Amino acid sequence: MNVKAKAITVGKGFLIGYVIVFVLITLFQRSFIYQSWSIDFAQAARRPVQKGLAQIVLTTSDKEMIKAYWRPPVRGMPVIISFHGNAATPQYYADRFAGKPWSDSGYGILAVTYRGYPGSTGEPSESGLLDDGRAAYDFVRKTTPDSQIVLHGHSLGSGVAVAIAAERSVLALILDAPFSSLEDVVADRFPMMPTFMLFDTYRSDERIKDVKAERIFVTHGTSDTVIPFGLGKTLASLRTDITFYVIPGGGHYDIMGRKDIEMERAITPLVRRPNA
Question: Is domain 34-270 given the CATH code 1.10.10.10 in the classification?
């Protein structure tokens, strides 16, 4: 076999391999995006939460049962609805917003578990997670109608938070390690994979323009190896009213809570108290 024939054979082999990988990634992409399979369900169920947080179940519009952690606010104070990251569970986020400085001001917290994650039914998808977010919002609006709502999202949860904030009225939006779109994440991490094959896209870069909130905060670490810092910076640049907290050397997880005091101090004076 001459050099040209060998090159053709190698090229064909590479092309066939690429097609096989492409097909497999396309078929199983949601297993890569929503890594609920990587969570120890038993350990997640045993993880304690702060006193005063109740475990409840929300029913979505498509009849899925969503586990959540709930603590009502002091009358008239806002409720923070928190959407967790990919291979995560909501207990940490429930504890975070049930603690200082938020607890001192009387904020409530609702931290939800996405469909398909430990304790919730269903299979995750973008449309499904947005239904979960709407169910959480509707629960707070019905349960504490006098309370304004603050939405929080970390990583994957930022895509959910931005989408719900673009649809519903919110007092503030808090985003930790967000991305501009899932397409941009894939393009950065898997540059040879065409993004047109994505079932879910989470176009926060488009939706953020429709968000009507008194305050929007983005926090991102410069050393984030999961969601590149540049994607959070891109999202923050799309509006002039976004407060962008840069955490030098910060990673994907250790940035959370670092700016809570500043954010609480900025949001609380804007709270609309009933009969005030």
Answer: no
